[in-house]
TrEMBL record:
Domain Response regulatory: 3-119
Molecular-function annotations in GO: diguanylate cyclase activity
GO terms of biological process kind: cell adhesion involved in single-species biofilm formation; negative regulation of bacterial-type flagellum-dependent cell motility; phosphorelay signal transduction system
Assigned EC number: 2.7.7.65
Annotated source species: Simiduia agarivorans (strain DSM 21679 / JCM 13881 / BCRC 17597 / SA1)
A Pfam family: GGDEF
Protein name: diguanylate cyclase
Cofactor(s) the protein requires to work: Mg(2+)
Length: 301
């Protein structure tokens, strides 16, 4: 069953197609002009549009061009239906983005077969788009924690940095590293280490805003880009994360463990030319936090 939208200025033509298509189990809607089609078709979300070429006012080709310019409609196959089946007319319709062309008078079973073919094409396009979306997600996400990965972090934070620079808005960065993580792995096993990484991601997610970007850069190292936050705001976030993690008890294979994290926090001063300068400074501050005893937040600009 497909959703088919018929556009024709002659009511009897619509009725004939409507009854046949409904008999074949399709859901049908219609319009009697190009403008009515533009108004009604997006709400109907058709799988295929059957569009008459010769209509008073807005022609079929003009309607087709307008449909292709609508983001919600540009992927919907349009089959032109016309008594004017000159070569030029067919070429024009296909060049303007029509999926197919059917001459009037048509043989209904042939028209219905072409509708089914257009629906199959649309379905495989949708499957391909969904698969591409899943691939893009896999390519940009850390598989253990579902945080964005290093590459995606640099891409997203780079564009936030450019915005902060353009509009002179604050932007802060937090670098986070689990303390003595090797010891967690060595004492309790790698699975407990993974549990700790998952807990860091969960706790951090609960402490940041929707607009902040949380990434696992690799190993036990995470970063958070906080657009719109001054260093004081970012220190508050970092302290919340540090305190929460220090209280967490993680469990794996009947064992329990506790751990801490250290963080370096800094803010864009207006002098940095690129985002990685900011991240490098946060990294140096994180190193100081480790040197000064771990389980602490060190900030600076
Ligand atoms: N379980 C687990 N361990 C990981 C993963 N990635 C990296 N590691 C381990 O993380 C540990 C990092 O250890 P180090 O770099 O020595 O740092 P640390 O022990 O945290 O010491 P400090 O950072 O100085 O507090 C190594 O043992 C890595 O094998 C992972 O995905 N899962």
């Amino acid at each position: 069953m497909a959703k088919i939208f018929i556009v024709d200025d002659v009511e009897d033509n619509i009725k004939l197609l409507w009854y046949n298509l409904e008999d074949d189990g399709h859901e049908v809607a219609s319009a009697m002009s190009g403008q009515e089609c533009l108004d009604k078709a997006p709400g109907f979300e058709p799988d295929v549009i059957l569009l008459d070429m010769m209509m008073p006012g807005m022609s079929g080709i003009e309607t087709l061009t307008a449909l292709k310019a609508l983001p919600a409609m540009d992927n919907i196959p349009v089959i032109m239906v016309s008594a004017n089946d000159s070569d030029d007319s067919i070429i024009d319709a296909l060049d303007q983005g029509a999926h197919d062309f059917i001459s009037k008078p048509f043989i209904y079973p042939v028209l219905e077969a072409r509708v089914r073919s257009a629906v199959r094409l649309k379905q495989s396009q949708e499957e391909l788009e969904a698969a591409n979306g899943r691939l893009a997600m896999l390519a940009s996400t850390d598989s253990l924690t579902q945080c964005v990965n290093r590459r995606q972090f640099f891409e997203l934070s780079g564009s936030e940095f450019a915005k902060a620079k353009r509009h002179a808005h604050p932007l802060s960065v937090i670098m986070l590293d689990a303390d003595k993580f090797k010891a967690i792995n060595d004492t309790y096993g790698h699975a407990m280490g993974d549990e700790a990484l998952l807990r860091i991601a969960d706790v951090a997610r609960g402490c940041i805003r929707e607009s902040d970007i949380l990434a696992r850069l690799g190993g036990e190292e995470f970063a958070i880009c906080c657009p719109g936050s001054t260093v004081d705001g970012a220190i508050r976030i970092a302290e919340r994360i540090r305190e929460a993690i220090a209280k967490e008890v993680i469990e794996c294979n009947g064992q329990t463990a506790q751990f801490t994290v250290s963080m370096g926090v800094t803010e864009y001063t207006g002098a940095e030319q690129a985002f990685d300068q900011l991240l490098n400074r946060a990294d140096r501050l994180l190193y100081r936090a480790k040197e000064e005893g771990r389980n602490r937040v060190i900030s600076g600009v």
